[in-house]
Design goal:
- The complex is a heterodimer of chains A (about 375) and B (about 675).
- Chain A starts with a helix and ends in a 5-residue tail after the last helix.
- By secondary structure, chain A is α/β, with parallel strands linked by helices.
- In chain A, the strands form four sheets. A six-stranded mixed beta sheet of chain A has the order 2-1-3-12-4-13, with helices on both faces. In chain A, strands 8-5-9 form a three-stranded antiparallel beta sheet. In chain A, strands 6-7 form a two-stranded parallel ribbon.
- Chain A is built from 14 helices and 13 strands.
- In chain A, helix 8 packs across helix 12 and helix 10 crosses helix 13.
- Chain B has a two-stranded antiparallel sheet.
- In chain B, a hairpin with a 6-residue loop joins strand 1 and strand 2.
- The chains are: A alpha/beta (about 375), B mainly alpha (about 675).
- The interface between A and B is large, with 55 and 59 residues.
Chain lengths: ~375, ~675
């Protein structure tokens, strides 16, 4: 009953938000159900992201199909991605949402990976950023521009989800700054890492932008945490610039420049930047399966573009996604290319670093 | 005082928000949906909330909340039906209810057990809400006091409950618990990602086994098979008079027990990271330890129902604390709850620290919606319990295929692979054998549930502690032995001592006669072999991943010593000793059917599913089972099958789920639900 009533409501509102469709180059999805596969559990960040977009996508697609998010978790998302690789395009009713945790094993030649990004067709790329923060007493020791030189003797504890996950980016950053950081593995989400920081057990942490805004900002106001740097954002030429969500914070690049011994060139920096670009500016992407025709790709691309043109998009997306580019079309292609096409030297460097530093052997 | 100045107006605003007809209406709608889902074992709040999620977008915040809270709040109430009537733990919250609730149902006291459970649930829910109203404003610093060593100690305290549930031979209970822990460590290690008892060639095991499958396998399958072999109704005698009123009286007579267990529920629920899966065991252990006459536990003492049921609804209130204060979900359903709240209205409300500050009225609305949902859910459940209890008088051969269908469906939700069914069957077989030879299944389950937190907190406390010791000896000692840790150590020691002294009197699963020596020895040797294999498998983990090696090696060592001592005892003891308990020896008269023939039916369902997919296999299974095993006519069997298939399809369609595909589906594209 409820389903029907609300379905009718959605339909009415969709009719109000008039569409410019049916000129032949779009596929019609009326009466169909689009299945959006998320290779994680119902409880993660990708679930939030897909649940945010799903009702909007339903309104924006021609024919207003029902959009359901289904979850196929396992093996750090490689299971779901492998399953998606097996699928072929049928009628545009299957899409897939990947995340940084899908990208990294792919880049690091994880033996479980049997998928190939270049077979898929990207229709949306959502970015995010990250912010590192410290307890106030340690933050007070920072030099000009976030110079970390004074912290080199400190014994740091960092709650980590695993060195081969997105945490690779902050872990490598700490190391480049010369910090003695011991990662405590086995936490289940970044929220647990923040809790560990709040309990005083961890004394360095990072959160993605939206989690920082909701979870750490109150701590900053209460004086129990102090932001240090953001990872930054990419400009049109691929340079790291200040994160538009945190324009007052220095970027990691600035902090690195200010800190003695940290180089913003050379293979270590190139590897860090490559994996940052792979993990954050295009963290979550939506794909159509291999073999999708142009009109299907165009249909979904236009739908995602239309969602961002909604008058209320800025308002409703701010809390859920942060102020980050939601790229479609050529921009999404470029973002995907830079996120999945990491130079071999950077891969080799990180694979060697993981094995030397953490004993992780990806075989 | 200042606290109250902000709290009281917010509280009255919250009541103004809740007490509107349409809000109450949505709440009751949520409650009814929650009851319908919770009744089915294995389908908890996660399935229900995922069902609601698509409708949350843009919904008026308070009505959306009413719908969701209504659903979440009553799942631990309604899952009692399965625990009491079928002996199947409906969800992780009501595992301990099975121990005494199901024997009561067998004795024809199902309605009494149910209403005692519901009265306790209601009370626990209200205590939880009342506690939360006061506590939530002051909770933050208290929750932050629970650092990793404290969490580890609480986990160990939970494990110490094994002592009281170990059964007549304490060593067997210990080995069972270790075995549960070792099964819980299967898969990728949390620290370094080393594989334990699994390979990348079998991706299913890499993620480990899920609680749904282990819970259903270890408790539900053995009970179903045992009941089927007797071929009678669940209740072996005519229902006793009194019905639901007797249960409410029982609760009133034990109201202080109920108060204590509710507080246990709230306190353990408040601590993030443990979830609620141990609460009911701790409450059960407490109930037994504080009771004067312990002889009835395990064979149908109503206090064994009141204790855990008081705690599991109170836990939902406690579980809201980490969710609301820190934005960190205490359970899977809370994680969905958080993301659903963000979809409500304009999306301006976000669960977490800011909500408490900016939307205190909203926070209180959640708390009291929870309490109201508990009241509504309990009234509906008590009203329905008399009727639903009649299920225990139906001939079991007619009930079993239906139950098995639902269990298989629920298990399949774990990973949506055919391997889910294989795992269910495998664990079920282990459960059957453990039941037969009187190895404590509760001890196994506690071990399984606590394996992951025990390992995680051990490793983390070790790492962080080592770092503190590097800074200074005193700082390290202060970290490891905080006052809370010391208190917990004392409680744990007391609980173990009391537990072991009394364990002999508490037969959590009734008495079992002893039979010949051979079968129990063979079973022990098989278990020893598995544990030895686990030991070897963990011991070869290389040094760089040693954090993933230490824990399983340690547990396996303890278990192997236990096994060796058991073997020695077995060599010395004579045939009538309790150590040789074997249900086959006593049940020979009752059992109409053989064990392997009964199990063969389910094995054939599994094999057929692998070949032609679940729905086709199920249709054949239902038809043949009702015709051949239950001895009904073909017409009856056909109607039964049609109703069963229609039911499961309707459920899958509503929840938007598929069924396990088989080999056939790999070659042909079939329409849903055959896919």
């Amino acid at each position: 009953m409820l389903k029907k009533t609300l379905g009718a409501l959605a339909l009415t509102s969709a009719l109000v938000a008039t569409q410019s469709v049916a000129d032949g180059h779009q596929i019609d999805l009326s009466g169909k159900t689009v299945e959006w596969i998320i290779p994680f559990s119902e409880t993660g960040g990708s679930a939030k992201w897909a649940n945010f977009y799903a009702p909007l996508l339903s309104e924006a697609l021609p024919g207003n199909p029902t959009v359901v998010v289904t979850f196929n978790p396992g093996a750090g998302s490689t299971k779901g991605a492998n399953a998606f690789q097996e699928m072929e395009y049928e009628d545009g009713t299957t899409i897939f949402g990947s995340s940084g945790s899908t990208q990294f094993p792919y880049l690091l030649s994880d033996p479980r990976v049997r998928y190939e990004y270049s077979d898929w067709n990207v229709v949306l790329a959502s970015g995010t950023g990250g912010v590192a923060y410290l307890p106030p007493e340690l933050s007070a020791q920072l030099g000009d521009g976030g110079d970390a030189s004074a912290l080199k003797g400190e014994d740091f504890i960092y709650g980590s989800q695993g060195a081969t996950r997105l945490d690779l980016v902050p872990l490598l950053a700490w190391e480049m700054l010369g910090l003695q950081v011991e990662p405590v593995f086995g936490i289940e989400g970044r929220g647990d890492g923040r809790l560990m920081f709040e309990r005083g057990e961890a004394n360095i942490d990072y959160q993605t932008s939206s989690s920082f805004l909701s979870g750490v900002t109150p701590l900053v106001e209460a004086g129990t945490a102090a932001p240090w740097f953001s990872f930054g954002a990419l400009d049109a030429d691929g340079n790291i610039v200040r994160d538009p969500t945190f324009p007052d914070m220095p970027t990691f690049k600035e902090v690195c420049e200010a800190t003695e011994g940290c180089e913003t060139s050379g293979e270590q920096w190139d590897a860090w930047k490559a994996f940052f670009v792979a993990g954050f500016p295009a963290q979550k992407m939506v794909f159509l399966p291999a073999g999708a025709p142009d009109n299907a790709i165009a249909t979904f691309t236009e739908a995602f573009a239309a969602i961002q043109e909604r008058d209320d998009f800025a308002e409703i997306s701010k809390a859920r996604l942060g102020v980050y580019p939601q790229l479609t079309g050529d921009a999404a292609q470029t973002a995907m290319a830079s996120a999945t096409d990491v130079p071999q030297e950077a891969k080799d460097f990180v694979i060697k670093w993981l094995s030397d530093r953490y004993g992780v052997v990806l075989q | 005082m200042e606290v109250f100045a902000t709290a009281l107006p917010a509280l009255s605003d919250a009541f103004a928000m809740i007490l509107q007809p349409h809000v109450i209406g949505y709440l009751i709608l949520g409650v009814v949906m929650g009851l319908c889902i919770g009744v089915f074992p294995g389908l908890g709040g996660i399935a229900g909330l995922s069902l609601l999620l698509p409708f949350m977008f843009g919904m008026e915040p308070v009505t959306g909340l009413a719908l969701m809270v209504g659903m979440v709040a009553v799942v631990p109430t309604s899952d009692t039906f399965a625990s009491v009537l079928m002996g199947i733990p409906g969800s992780s919250a009501s595992q301990a209810t099975v121990l005494d609730g199901f024997p009561m149902a067998k004795k024809g006291q199902a309605a009494r057990a149910l209403s005692a459970a519901f009265a306790s649930s209601l009370f626990g829910g209200l205590v939880g809400a009342a506690f939360l109203t006061v506590f939530i404003l002051a909770a933050r610093p208290i929750v932050l006091l629970f650092q990793t060593p404290e969490l580890l100690m609480i986990t160990i305290f939970g494990l110490s409950m094994v002592g009281i549930l170990a059964g007549r031979v304490a060593l067997k209970g210990l080995v069972a618990a270790c075995l549960g822990i070792l099964v819980g460590t299967i898969g990728e290690g949390a620290s370094s990602g080393a594989l334990r008892m699994s390979t990348y060639d079998m991706p299913y095991l890499v993620d480990g086994l899920k609680l749904v499958i282990v819970g259903l396998g270890i408790f539900a399958i053995p009970e179903i098979v045992a009941l089927l072999r007797r071929d009678k109704a669940i209740s072996d005698r005519a229902p006793l008079g009194g019905g639901w009123a007797a249960g409410v009286k029982d609760w009133w007579a034990n109201k202080w027990l109920s108060v204590r267990c509710s507080l246990i529920g709230v306190v353990v629920g408040v601590i993030p990271g443990l979830g609620g899966s141990v609460v009911d065991w701790i409450a059960y252990g407490h109930t037994v330890q504080t009771a004067k006459d312990k002889s009835g536990f395990g064979s149908g003492d109503v206090r064994g129902v009141i204790g855990p049921e008081s705690s599991n609804n109170a836990k939902e209130g406690g579980g809201l604390v980490p969710t609301l204060l820190f934005g960190i979900p205490g359970s899977g359903s809370m994680a969905i709850f958080i993301s659903a709240v963000a979809l409500l209205g304009t999306g301006s409300i976000e669960v977490g620290p800011s909500m408490l500050k900016n939307n205190l009225d909203f926070t209180y609305a959640i708390v009291w919606l929870l309490a109201l949902a508990n009241v509504a859910g309990t009234i509906i459940c008590i009203a329905a319990s008399g009727g639903i209890a009649k299920l225990t008088e139906i001939r079991f051969a007619l009930l079993a295929p239906f139950l098995f269908m639902i269990i298989a469906f629920a298990a399949f939700q774990s990973r949506q692979e055919i391997w889910d069914l294989v795992a269910l069957f495998g664990i079920g077989l282990l459960g059957i054998l453990m039941r037969r030879f009187d190895w404590s299944r509760p001890a196994f389950l506690i071990g399984f549930v606590l394996a992951a937190p025990a390992e995680r907190y051990t490793n983390q406390a070790y790492q962080i502690g080592a770092s503190r010791f590097r800074r200074g000896f005193e700082e390290g000692i202060d970290y490891i032995f905080s006052p809370i840790v010391i208190v917990l150590i004392i409680i744990t020691l007391l609980s173990v001592v009391i537990g072991l002294r009394q364990a002999k009197n508490i037969q959590a699963e009734g008495t079992v006669a002893a039979g010949s020596k051979r079968a129990p020895v063979v079973f022990l040797l098989a278990i020893t072999a598995y544990i030895a294999l686990t030991y070897w498998n963990a011991a070869i983990i290389p040094d760089f991943a040693r954090m993933d090696r230490v824990f399983p090696v340690f547990v396996a060592t303890v278990a192997l010593i236990g096994c060796a001592l058991l073997l020695v005892q077995m060599m010395r003891a004579d045939e009538t000793s309790a150590i040789f308990a074997d249900r086959e020896a006593e049940g020979a008269d009752d059992n109409v059917h053989g064990l392997w023939a009964t199990l063969g039916w389910f094995a054939s369902l599994l094999v057929a599913s692998a070949l032609v997919g679940f729905i086709l296999a199920l249709a054949g299974f239902l038809l043949l089972f009702i015709r051949l095993r239950a001895g009904k006519s073909w017409g009856y069997a056909a109607i039964y099958t049609a109703v069963g298939i229609a039911f499961i399809c309707a459920m899958a369609w509503t929840l938007n789920r598929d069924f396990p595909p088989g080999l056939l589906q790999a070659y042909f594209d079939l329409p849903w639900p055959l896919t």
